[in-house]
Protein 1
Amino acid sequence: MHASIVTLFPELFEPFLRATVLGRAVQKGLLRVDLTDMRAFGQGRHRIVDDRPFGGGPGMVLMAEPVVRAVEAAREAHGTEVRTIYLSPQGRRFDQSIASELAAAPDGFILLCGRYEGIDERALDLLALEERSLGDYVLSGGEAAALAVLDATARLVPGVLGDDRSAPEDSFSNAQGLLDHPHYTRPASWRDVPVPEILLSGNHAAIAAWRHEVALERTRTRRPDLLAPGSAYNPEPTRPSLTDTPTQGSAGADKEA
Ligand code: 9WO
């Protein structure tokens, strides 16, 4: 996986890449992370990258020119089709399926981190950026979101996690689109609270069924949106088109993947 981060704070990424499983993945050659310092593309002796907003209002706006030149520089290390994501609360949601796509993208991907009040809209248009949000909250910049995207994608690359099974089995990657089941470890009784008895039974089929049931129940109560029609758990059947030639036994078989 090849990721580039375009940011005014490249130094924020270095300790994270050194201290976590991502650092070992870089060492192993499974992961390449390029950092592009937007400041290097700023104007004048002071490398200025921001200016006051037209129309007034508080704060500063990142100028189009340094942003475009920084992203274009980052793009040179990727293929021409490289997916470039601007992390902002105005974006459509980033989710596990996008993480999987990015982890497997042959040209890699670029993450653009904004600061201040945002980026001049003309830069976003010119670069044909894909704007993505991690959730409905405002940060002081895109860097914390970029770290989350890097972490979510890198752990999907085969060999990055110690145990090959760890990634597919947790929430959302469990293919069923359900929340994870609860976890327990020793001691079997802790402060007088026992572990659910079935987990000590050794009956692996019964344990799998119990985990699925509990996962489904907590998804129902905590995240009913994940079970709604059209979700991964409950895919919308595609309507057969009137122009399709009917084939025997195919009714309802053409669900979305
Ligand atoms: C500031 C703001 C204030 C009032 C109402 C809406 C507002 N939006 C912003 C804003 O988007 N500020 C940004 C700070 C500019 C670009 C980088 N910043 C950022 C990225 N904050 N939060 C994110 C982010 C990215 C991905 N997922 C969640 C939040």
Note: The beta strands are 2-7, 32-37, 50-51, 61-62, 83-93, 109-113, 130-133, 189-190, 193-194.
Protein 2
Amino acid sequence: MKYQNFWYPRCRLFKNTLEYQRHFEAKDTDLIIASHPKTGTTWLTTLLFAVVNRGKYPLSESPILYQHPHHLVHRLEDVHFREAIGNQLISFSDLNKLLPPRLFSTHFPYVSLPESIKTSNCRILYICRNPLDTFVSQWHFYSKIAKHLGGDQHLKPYSFEDYFEDWLEGRIMFGPFFEHVVDYWMKSLERPEKILFLKYEDLKYDPIQHLKRVADFVGIPFSPEEESEGVITGIIEMCSINNVKELEVNKNGVNFTGVEKRAYFRKGEVGDWTNYFTPNMVERMNKLMQQKLGGTGLTF
Ligand code: A3P
């Protein structure tokens, strides 16, 4: 099903979009992680949580060590679903009781965000990733969790080739990918104080610099003392894939949608696509990328 030019699988996600557009009221102090699936949402969630809560918990007692990252924030598209299944964790009215800054995440495209997110002073941290690695990561994840995606209508796992064709057409969850990314990118250029645009690869190659950008953006910059005491490197180490992947809480069990918690942690590398793409696929992807990103100033 296509809504506001983006694709939703025929399942609860679409219903939730409408509920969320209708009922969610953003506050000026809210921080919202936005992303296309499999671009580093889980990683950014832990980093942001650690930055915002560093005064509240010493790193050795951080909830990151005993809660799955997705339970540290509220994913906006799941709120209605949780309410509907009687999940006591949260409902829209409960969100008003949360202390500031409230942390949320969403995969919704910019166009479908509730008006209050666009018009209030809340801030959005958008993470994106090179499309080839995103594709590989999505294909692994969706193959693993295919039976959960269709709600009652369980989907069959995609073949790599079929998923590639759908991907190029944009017929993927929250797709098309490039439109999703470019919309947020353009908005971040217009309103840099409102939207921080991050790239997975930048976080990998220079985590210190980009974690500082996150802290500055949310208005809690690292002090020189914190830097010299190793707070920045401590957060980076705690949130590294090698660390979070091995935490008991992330190794076992399923989340409330039935997806295995460990499915969110695979390799966490840049360039894994080279193990999967044929030269022809690379050429087709690059051609599409040039078409879609040409003139935007955005490169991967
Ligand atoms: P791979 O499948 O390439 O390994 P999302 O969080 O948006 O669902 O994205 C999932 C991707 O981010 C997966 O990529 C996953 O392994 C990777 N990832 C999860 N936690 C990470 C972390 N702490 N550091 C780096 N990458 C991480």
Note: The pocket of adenosine-3'-5'-diphosphate is lined by residues 35, 37-43, 133, 137, 140, 239-241, 244, 264-268, 272 (CB under 6 Å).
Protein 3
Amino acid sequence: MEFDTIAAISTPPGEGAIAIIRVSGDQAVEIGDRLYRGKNKLQAVESHTIHYGHLYQPEQEVKIEEVMVSVLRAPRTFTREDMIEINVHGGVVSADRILQLVLSQGARLAEPGEFTKRAFLNGRIDLSQAEGVMDMIRAKTDRAMNVAMKQVEGRLAGQIKRLRQQLLEGIASVEVNIDYPEYDADAVTLQHLLEQIHAVDREIDELLQTAKQGRILREGLATAIIGRPNVGKSSLLNTLVQDARAIVTDIPGTTRDVLEEYVNVNGVPLRLIDTAGIRETEDVVERIGVERSRQALQDAELILLVFNANEPLTKEDQALIEASRGFETIVVLNKMDLERRLDREQLTEWIGDVPVITTSFLQEEGINELEQAISQRFFHEGVEAVEMNYVSNTRHIALLNQAKASIAEAKSAAEAMMPVDMVQIDVTRAWEQLGEIVGETAPDQLIDQLFSQFCLGK
Ligand code: GDP
Ligand code: ZN
């Protein structure tokens, strides 16, 4: 394919030791040569090498900057096009000035995600891989990063392509039948088609089962810490934050602007809801009352319900138990270092079959147990043990569900002894829906919209 030459600053905005201006397209190296003076012309050097030199304002021969320029020739590049990467001293002004120079020589400013989009359009990666790139940028924990990386490697794409192939074989056997109607093998054909789609259906189910875990790894588990005043909510929050191997907040430059707080609990990213309230000791419950805190809990996927073991249960505790009903809840029985005044039997009676972890945040006890309980609640085998393809992307999940529905229709059509070409229509639809995951049947509009979510320069 033929595209114009694009350029953008690929490093995050702000100050840094270096900034990189990326240029991709047929003109990339030539544009570089109009600005660069070094030992050799960039057009003369070998691919995948880096060169020291200076950039000049063309015509005026004014030295602008000291640079290192990488020359990367198609097709072994990120975009599969000729590329140069200009490394300049960090700083907003410097990088911007170089970008302006490059643009003045005929490159066009890249749209967000356009480099990755070119990798897709030039056939280097498929759509699910491109989405994986975006997930890698946004990953909050190592584990989330690994899931995204597998997607970038094309593991999910490979599986989807295999499933499509299977459906296609089924469809093909029907085509043969339609082309030779005198060869009346309807029953045999249908049998074969059904076997194929059963197998595909089972694998789609397995993939969908990973969806919840995948989404948690990707977006974090929305977690609310609730409990009466003074039971230890802030202490719990601080403990989680301190203990977390990585506290990750959203990376600037991605399109999600809201800054949320994440803690890493055994590889599971918890997205803490309403932590500001807890921080100011004016927590959710204190501030807005139990009734309204129900509202605030709506988005919670996990509730850590904290009690003070040193005090008898109160009406307010009971109200909080009611508020947490229907949510995944873990009870944190805190202040175990003090005399026990809370009636465990009463608690069990009120709350039912919910895991209870006893802790003392003062003496730093029970914290590992709590973290174990949290991660095992959502990843029974432990996050690290899982080596399968996770489906984490909402778009992929929706398409898998659609394909599953189409297959269900094909099955019932087959069972109702409908003509085999009717069944074929449903199977073909499933085939197309799966194709949309990897971008083979995705409409242009969708593709544009997806890539526009990337940050500039990616
Ligand atoms: P919150 O109001 O629920 O956020 O409770 P805080 O975390 O602010 O704790 C209230 C008080 O209880 C503070 O003085 C803490 O130091 C104390 N506290 C927290 N956890 C424990 C514990 O496990 N044992 C004891 N003895 N005191 C604790
Ligand atoms: Zn507090």
Note: The longest helix spans residues 155-179.
Protein 4
Amino acid sequence: MSHAPRASPVTTSEAPPARRFEYAPAPESRAVVNIRPSYGLFIDGEFVEPTDGSLFETVNPATEEVLAEVSAAGPGDVDRAVVAATRAQREVWGSMPGKERAKYLFRVARIMQERARELAVLETLDNGKPIRESRDVDVPLAAAHFFYYAGWADKLAYAGLGPAPRPLGVAGQVVPWNFPLLMAAWKLAPALAAGNTCVLKPAETTPLSALLLAEILQQAELPPGVVNILTGAGDTGAALVAHPGVAKVAFTGSTEVGKSIQRSLAGSGKHLTLELGGKAANVVFEDAPLSQAIEGIVNGIFFNQGHVCCAGSRLLVQESVAEQVVEGLKSRLQTLRLGDPLDKNTDLGAINSPQQLEKIRELANSGEDEGAERWSPTCALPDRGYWFPPTVFTGVAPAHRIAREEIFGPVLSVLTFRTPEEAVAKANNTTYGLSAGVWTEKGSRILWMAQQLRAGVVWANTFNRFDPTSPFGGYRESGFGREGGRHGLAAYLDV
Ligand code: NAP
Ligand code: MG
């Protein structure tokens, strides 16, 4: 998987890179996907009208164009979906032999691959992310999760979780807007492999790829009720996690909402996993291959406009090479292309919503107010839509808000250190603990750092690598539970 941005001439600056190449526009066709004007809720294998819900619009954040009208599920709709999922779990899915469940999951994965272009274009339209990322990362990885967990469905007794692990029942799953299809796949694939049925709530601003996935589930002839998809806002999510028929809640989103869900479920006996925010340190030692590290820094924070829970949003660079790294980084950023997400040459797409744009602006302004130095390449932002230029802050102190709070945007805070011990202390100086990166030539230092860093995932000489076989999850305010790999099954089994 490679998603390092390519060179481009869109931005201008005081110190232009030595060679520049002109790119002709290379837009992906939006005609490959058929967006309906209006969508119902996916309950018991059918698209149905909401009974006590309402309608809302979803827009393309790159153009502000309304893409479709979507239903917001009310409490009565949540109840219908949970009832359908309960019946499907008891009567069909929970008692089906694992090797039969596997066939459905393989089929879903294959159809996702067949319809990959549609899924990628739809994801880019609804989310604002570059087509190169949805095409090369989100969609193939989502299919890979279904393939991987299909393989586990008939081998649960060999997963090291006891000889006869049992499904929990109905899983209520709530996902965010930054990787809408991929997060749905992370949730659905292990739950289904383990014999649970699901009610999934996508984020309000990005419901469309989950609704296309519902069509794919119909095409795969998944038995009715095994997966139900309820679009809506936070209220729908809250009603879902509170429903007494839900045995397991899986939530990915902000730490704030995660905490409120944990409070509301206390004493209910429901199983819970939380995948929350992060403020990852990307640590560059002086002996690292610096140009490779610079690519990794760019990928770490500017991939998906920085809307990444495990983004390398704090660069910790050894003082002796700090100037060189920051200079190299700035000259690299001058070549990033920001603009039409459907253009195959685009590196940075749109910010997902005006609310998120406002949050990024507010935190970036606080960086300036608190005394850090702000830098962006000169970069023309489109007139319509929600945009924020790639931004680097130097002179950042550990107490600054931009060093502590998750910005969830294309904004990097640069801090320096002198010794490995200081690097560890600064990297761990956060309430989060989701991911970290280490750049060094020394193998022993990589292992030592990995032991010292309090983060669920530590990447060495790379960043933002994902694979369905590898567990992912956090410590502290980044949540608990693991998704991916054999560990991801544990969250959906009574062992
Ligand atoms: P969010 O506001 O917490 O929303 C996440 C999901 O929860 C959305 O579907 C949201 O619906 C729903 N929701 C809101 N209030 C709820 C409530 N009271 N009860 C139940 N559900 C509720 O998070 P976000 O701002 O959309 O997403 C960004 C956050 O997700 C970041 O902090 C990021 O780090 C985190 N994230 C973590 C991971 C991980 O694996 N650790 C991965 C991706 C993202 P609406 O969208 O309709 O409001
Ligand atoms: Mg949208």
Note: The first helix runs from residue 75 to 93.
